[in-house]
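Risk register update: the risk of archive-format incompatibility is retired. Evidence:
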Amino acid sequence: MRQFYERYADYLTAVCSRYIPEKADAKDVLQESFVKMLGALDSFEYRGEGSLKAWSSRIVVNTALKSLRKSGRLRYMEALPDLPEESEPEVERVPAPVLQQFIQALPDGYRTVFNLFVFEKKSHREIAALLGIKEDSSASQFFRARALLARKIKQYLKENE
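Archived output:
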């Protein structure tokens, strides 16, 4: 387990912090995830390189989602006015830590849907089932998250030219 921790702790911390931006809460979720992994090791089935990483990531994401639901922070913003369509900014010109800050600053519902869609490669149908929302709500949350991020990125690029 020590080797597993040393190999994947940083990666799993990053996965967890995509959903839980507060460091203390992220540490709690990560610790709970490691306890779950330890308890479920006998159910893990090795399927080649990357299967342990994928399995542990899935546990971290599910534990983070459970924590967000339990805390009541996972709210979806349905009644907001439509955001104007933003053209795609030059994301590659923004340092990764800055992008991560922008994503972490999104409202919880936006951030969760955005992360599930972009990083976990879930469809809106899968996201809707995971979060107990409508498929259209998932797509709407993603669209709004992307528009907010585009605005922040454009502002950052304008200020740092």
